[in-house]
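Hi R.,

As promised on Friday, here is the backbone we talked about, encoded as structure tokens. Could you run it through your design pipeline when you get a chance and send me back a sequence?
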């Protein structure tokens, strides 16, 4: 009984702080999973030595700069070049050749990719390297464009700089390393052949107008933080953004909920690769 009562009070306070942040900053934390928000808020409360959401609300009033720290805590930027190597292997060996073949058949040159929630850019550059390697082998005249978007402007600055610590080199396949990367002692930079096909733009997946029309959407390890309703809405957004027959790649622990399943065909269950159904012949 008592623990239930405590939980109710605790939850009420959480709702209040969520409403406060929405009203004052326009960021609606209710669109994230409740448990995720609770964990991220707990990390801020811990760091500040505070014990309740009410104390935290008072703290924010006195220290408005705390909003930036909270947003930092909510936008976990962990990423990696060729994250989950097998996804990129399948993408490179099966999806890219199929997509290029479709394009050739339709006499289309443009290939557009959207890395939604790209963090510091490694995913967008990995996609670009994979395509450029595939296009090179096909000896064709395709025009590639990879757009990375994220809510976090600081992460996007890193992406645009295209310079990373050398420890991250190990995640890039050796052939790509030789062709697409220039080592500079403690760091390495992504060569212009890759950076010139990549652009980065701030975009809040909850509120901003999405990107149209793309052949591939990568939205990996972003989705997992969103509540079910928001996941369904976002899958609708991706469906609209994709050209017919276009591909959607989710993260390893993410899947399309049954409510959105009819919109997409499963291409590879293990790697979480889906497709918007192609048009009828
Ligand atoms: C864990 S990273 C994933 C990076 C990359 N996709 C990967 O799989 O390695 C999650 C990213 O989602 C971004 N994010 C969180 N909420 C977002 C939102 N509402 N709109 C856009 N990006 C968001 C964060 O800023 C963060 O950079």
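Update: got your reply. Pasting your designed sequence below so it's all in one thread:
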């Amino acid at each position: 009984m008592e623990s239930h009562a405590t939980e109710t009070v605790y939850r009420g306070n959480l709702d209040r702080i969520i409403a406060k942040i929405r009203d004052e900053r326009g960021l609606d934390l209710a669109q994230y999973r409740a448990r995720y928000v609770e964990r991220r808020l707990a990390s801020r409360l811990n760091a500040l030595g505070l014990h309740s959401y009410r104390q935290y609300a008072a703290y924010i009033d006195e220290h408005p700069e705390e909003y930036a720290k909270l947003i930092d805590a909510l936008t976990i930027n962990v990423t990696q070049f060729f994250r989950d190597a097998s996804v990129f292997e399948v993408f490179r060996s099966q999806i890219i050749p199929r997509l290029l073949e479709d394009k050739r058949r339709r006499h289309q040159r443009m290939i557009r990719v959207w890395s939604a929630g790209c963090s510091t850019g490694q995913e967008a550059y990995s996609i670009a390297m994979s395509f450029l390697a595939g296009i090179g082998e096909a000896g064709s005249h395709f025009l590639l464009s990879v757009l990375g978007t994220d809510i976090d402007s600081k992460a996007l600055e890193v992406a645009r700089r295209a310079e990373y610590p050398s420890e991250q080199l190990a995640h890039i396949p050796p052939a790509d390393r030789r062709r697409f990367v220039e080592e500079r002692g403690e760091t390495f930079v992504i060569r212009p052949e890759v950076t010139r096909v990549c652009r980065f733009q701030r975009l809040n997946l909850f509120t901003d107008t999405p990107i149209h029309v793309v052949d591939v959407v990568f939205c990996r390890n972003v989705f997992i933080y969103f509540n079910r309703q928001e996941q369904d809405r976002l899958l609708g957004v991706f469906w609209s953004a994709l050209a017919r027959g276009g591909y959607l790649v989710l993260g390893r622990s993410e899947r399309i909920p049954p409510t959105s399943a009819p919109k997409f065909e499963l291409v590879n269950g293990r790697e979480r690769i889906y497709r918007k159904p192609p048009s009828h012949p």
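One thing I noticed while checking it: The first helix runs from residue 2 to 25.

Thanks again,
M.
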